[in-house]
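haha ok so turns out i had the wrong file open the whole time. this is the CORRECT one, sorry everyone. sequence first:
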Amino acid sequence: MKAQPGSRIEPRDPEPRTGDSQVTERNAEASPRFQARMAGVIAWITITAGFAEIARGRLIVYGDAAATAHNILAHEMLYRLALVGDVIALLYIAYTLLLYNLFRPVNRSLSLLAAFFSLVGCAIGAVNCLFVLAPLVVLGDAQSLSAFNVGQLQAQALMFLKLHAQLYTISMVLFSCREFWAR
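then structure:
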């Protein structure tokens, strides 16, 4: 092709661009296969929440606050590891966003609705981690809790665990709504 008289010819850049804009474009245009694989990896990682519930469930005696307090304090490391599993499970937020991005071309409104239910469930799960942490605080040797007797502290610890169970049920309902709308 010949250049027109008076037109400017821009020289080609001998080196490819490696600036931030090019890297951002490549990341923004990650292939659906890569996104699906990442979603699968994150789904496997978030299974830790299920293991956390199993481990914590073996420590809790819902009818007996004293036995529950004894089990938590006797197996405090296991209880803390279950809490770490719950925190790791908050990666489900990334899983939700990946699935939203994958299903958005298929049906944007349903994908958005499913992401909404899932993100609300994740928010409840994040708050729920505080109810799991609360029994450790209540059963610890805090000076600010010296006004309560041991039985009251044990009852408070069990109450926090019962609130955790209720919120966990609500979050599972929201996650099942996400599954329903995603299908």
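The chain has a mean pLDDT of 84.
again sry for the mixup
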